[in-house]
Amino acid sequence: MLQPAENAGTARNIILAGFMGSGKTTVGRELAHMLNRQLVDTDEEVVRRHGLSIATVFTRYGEERFREWEAEIALELAMLRNLVVATGGGTLMNDQVFKELNVFGFVAYLRWPFEMLYERISRSGKHRPLVERYGKEGLKELLAAREPRYRQAHVEIHADNYPPATIAKVINHVFKS
Asked: In which band, very low, low, confident or very high, does the pLDDT at 10 lie, cut at 50, 70 and 90?
């Protein structure tokens, strides 16, 4: 089970949201370092807890089970403080998770144009089950379906224009404002 850092204080979590390939984990590392907070990546936490890669979870149990595990983790994180949380691309689509993370945390949407995201996803070398399942056009539709939820974040950052360290600084500035 996740535990808050000792002497972590009562600061709200900063939740990084966006489509796969948007740099949530990379920006999260920068932000966590800047603020001396722990970074928790929900995808990595699913892997750690269940001892299976995301691809294996999708193959063995399906996307629905993955989403259940992801939601459990996200709801736990919503009750902790002083974390930077990099969510999976579909995490906020769960209504309960969205409400809890939005109320108890500060949500930042890392927005990218689809073509740039697809290029990043394609060249990353990571095995991404949704890329295989949906293909380029299907992913474009998936982003379009998710974007209204992403855009309900506290702040929207057009992340394609800046390096991760700058994005982290902007999020920190807006968070502290």
From this structure: low
Report how many domains make up the chain.
2
Q: Where are the beta strands (DSSP E) in the chain?
A: 13-17, 38-41, 83-86, 105-111, 155-158
The residue range of the domain holding 65 is 35-89
* Domain shared by 114 and 75, yes or no: no
Entry field: residues in the chain: 177
Mean pLDDT of 104-118: 96
Q: Which residues pair with 86 in a beta bridge?
A: 16, 41
pLDDT band at 6 (very low <50, low <70, confident <90, very high): very low
Closest CA to 74 of 31, 44, 53, 36: 44
